[in-house]
Design brief:
3 strands; globular; alpha+beta; 72 residues
């Protein structure tokens, strides 16, 4: 049996806030790193931008990569 690439909980999101003035740069970077942002987040969405200054990640490793890159 093939193991799934991502091991994350479908119920838990890791949320991080950022300064809204960095929105375009951050969303572009997330699209490059984690794939295109879904129109509607579902159980298989890897990440989603919420509100003007928050992003949620399913995988703790994605969350940590974001925090390390953006120093939040």
């Amino acid at each position: 049996m093939t193991k799934p690439k991502y091991q994350f909980s479908r119920a838990k999101w890791y949320e991080v806030e950022f300064h809204w003035t960095d929105y375009d740069e951050i969303v572009d970077w997330c699209n490059e790193q984690f794939g295109t942002q879904p129109t509607r987040a579902d159980a298989w969405s890897r990440w989603v931008h919420v509100y003007a200054d928050k992003i949620q990640f399913r995988d703790q490793e994605d969350y940590m990569l974001f925090v390390l890159r953006w120093g939040l």
